[in-house]
Amino acid sequence: MAIKIDQSICDGCPDYQEGRCERICPGNLIEKEGEKAEMKRPAECWDCAACVKACPRNAISLYLPEEVGGRGTKLKVQQNKKRSLWIFDREDGSRKVYKTG
Amino acid sequence: MEKKIIKTDLLVIGGGAAGCYAAVTARREDPELKVTVIEKAHIERSGCLAAGINAINAYLNPGETPESYLHYVKNDSYGLVRDDLVYSIGRGLNKVTREVEDWGLKILKDENGNYLKRSSRSIKIEGENFKEILAAKVERSGVQVLNKTAALNYIKKDGRICGAFALNIKEDKFYVIKAKAVICATGGAAGIYEPNNSGQAKHKMWYPPFNTGAGYAMGIRAGAEMTTFEMRFVALRVKDVIAPTGSFAFAGGQQVNEQGEEYLKKYSRITTAMRLYATVRENKEGRGPCYLDLGHLEAEKKEKLAQSLLGMCPGIVLKWEDSQSDLSELKVEIEGTEPYIVGGHCQSGYWIDLDRSTSLPGLFAAGDVAGGSPKKYVTGAFVEGEIAAKSAVKEIAELPQNFLNLNISELITNEYQRVKSVLDKPEGIEAVRLEEKLQQIMENYAGGRTQYYELEASKLKQARSKLKELKNESKMLKAESLRDFLAVQELLERIDVAEVLLEHLLYREETRWPAYQSRVDFSERKKEWRKFVNSRQNPASGEIEIIEREYKSLEEYAAFASRSQEDFYLEYNL
Ligand SMILES: Cc1cc2nc3c(=O)[nH]c(=O)nc-3n(C[C@H](O)[C@H](O)[C@H](O)COP(=O)(O)OP(=O)(O)OC[C@H]3O[C@@H](n4cnc5c(N)ncnc54)[C@H](O)[C@@H]3O)c2cc1C
Ligand code: SF4
Ligand code: SF4
């Protein structure tokens, strides 16, 4: 599993018919259970980060699975029309931010 | 599961690069036309472009021409391509690039306002949101889009393709879509071989794991002629995160082995296949692992490289940040991927005409699903989408008004029942179990990565019989929900593609493309094999029949065409 949905932040996208993440995932891997989004097929994630960018509440982060040497750093992306902020939060509390666009 | 019957003029299957471009073109050609796109995911972020891309890999920079593009592609493919198709793509590459720039794609420019070259045939872009741009244009063009709707099979009536059956997995709907013409643009196929990574990382692959060869499989089942499946595509990628190597190579990276030797220097003719083959050989002969060595990287350059990779493959930057590598001496380990079947990099796919019609009346193909023209990439997919749409629009105009009054109730019942029976099964096998089996068979007996991509007849024949057993077992597949059914359907698609692939691999008794198609029992390239291996599944017997087609040069195509090639380009505005 390479994304993590923080259930305490997810509000289920009440303004939309379906969760933004579940709508956008190119593999149809996320589904809403009640009010919250759930990663239903964790092993099938392509790590494209589409859901990470689409979540209006920034509840989703991308991380590297252990199988490919992941150590727990999480990536979140904040996007507006003009630019994207790519925020990497490491386990030790340090942070690196890239700006694009 | 509700049944819903709809009618449209043009049905586009797959809302990726080729499909979006085709739909927009069709509406522009005839603003009255009803155009419907069905997309298994959501067109804003589906297919190859979901994460974004950072270059246009096929563009003619000053000094390049359609002829020089053909020359390059043909040389890189060891002399065997469809000259007419490749050339036609060369005619359209720059035009479609300007067009998508108009739609909002950001192309990087130099101080004089010229596109920033990455190489003689590629330019740099900021394409993180490329797919969103295409989707927005589709919407502005008045195209009907059915998202979360996966095509299952074509509707074939009296030999003609007249639409498709599809499933909307969110709304629990079984769609019957009748159409006057159909364009197939479902992309290529991943997941036929064992992937590079396992467990929770098994889908950390290069090609989208969600492109499962639906269009190939639907065509195979309907008896379409397919070409060159044996030219598998194996990408050379950064280990673990399977990031593309292009960004590193163009940043000046050299391929070196464990001893630091630039091993490509041992070979005289460096093609795309050769870069991979040489790497595989270094590994096999104990001189691996191999790396792309960028040497010393200044901080600014390092930051730029990371930024350009974020909009295409965020995983590699995540890896760097995760391991806190300082990147000042950047050396990334590279390896070959699982073999993919993909007509946009290699040339497996529908056997098509210059106008992108397939061998089945009413059906056109474009992009990764269409065969005969390697290295067309995203812009080539656009050009093909444009040509296919223009051809389809012409054909539709000639059909009688009442064309869609088809009686297909029996076909509908059969397909509906097929889906129902998988859903109703009280017990059976889950798709993922047979998927692993399929991948093991192909990996071990049909030249997977761990077998150094090597092929030989005796093993291929074993694969053939094991696959037959697997196909039998697949009758036991069950699904609890429509989403699970999609997984079953995708597995069936991969099995159909694998079956055809095996026949092609067995038939070509030479080695034409190093690593992509390396026969240890026929290790030489032979003149007499400069011909196409095509196939068609006999609808009556289910047997896959091989058809040989001769190679023709561009001049020969021109001489034999019923109209002059230039007339074609004039008519298609290319
Ligand atoms: C990771 C990656 C990076 C790339 N980078 C570059 C680059 O930098 N430059 C470049 O020029 N090219 C690049 N390419 C190549 C380029 O993206 C492809 O050649 C191009 O997208 C192919 O277009 P397509 O329409 O055939 O396939 P896709 O764009 O993949 O579209 C296929 C669509 O069909 C849908 N589909 C599949 N099955 C069904 C079904 N049963 N029913 C309905 N819909 C279905 C899929 O969801 C998808 O949306 C890259 C490709 C990949 C995979
Ligand atoms: S990263 Fe991509 S594939 Fe993975 S869950 Fe998110 S949208 Fe789906
Ligand atoms: S997009 Fe974010 S807030 Fe909306 S359902 Fe998904 S995780 Fe929850």
TrEMBL record, chain A:
Highest rank taxon of the organism: Bacteria
One annotated GO molecular function: metal ion binding
The 4Fe-4S ferredoxin-type domain, residue ranges: 1-34, 35-65
Keywords: 4Fe-4S, Iron, Iron-sulfur, Metal-binding
Transmembrane feature ranges: none
InterPro entries: 4Fe4S_Fe-S-bd (IPR017896), 4Fe4S_Fe_S_CS (IPR017900), Fe-S_Ferredoxin (IPR050572)
Protein name: Adenylylsulfate reductase subunit B
Lineage of the species this protein comes from: Bacteria, Bacillati, Bacillota, Clostridia, Halanaerobiales
Automatic annotation (TrEMBL), chain B:
FAD-dependent oxidoreductase 2 FAD-binding domain ranges (all copies): 9-373
Keywords recorded for this protein, A-Z: Coiled coil, Flavoprotein, Oxidoreductase
Residue runs in coiled coils: 453-480
BP terms from Gene Ontology: anaerobic respiration
Active site: 275 (proton acceptor)
Protein name per the record: Dissimilatory adenylylsulfate reductase alpha subunit
Signal sequence bounds: none
GO cellular component annotations of the record: plasma membrane
Pfam families in UniProt: FAD_binding_2, Succ_DH_flav_C
Every Fumarate reductase/succinate dehydrogenase flavoprotein-like C-terminal domain range: 436-548
Species per Swiss-Prot/TrEMBL record: Halanaerobium saccharolyticum
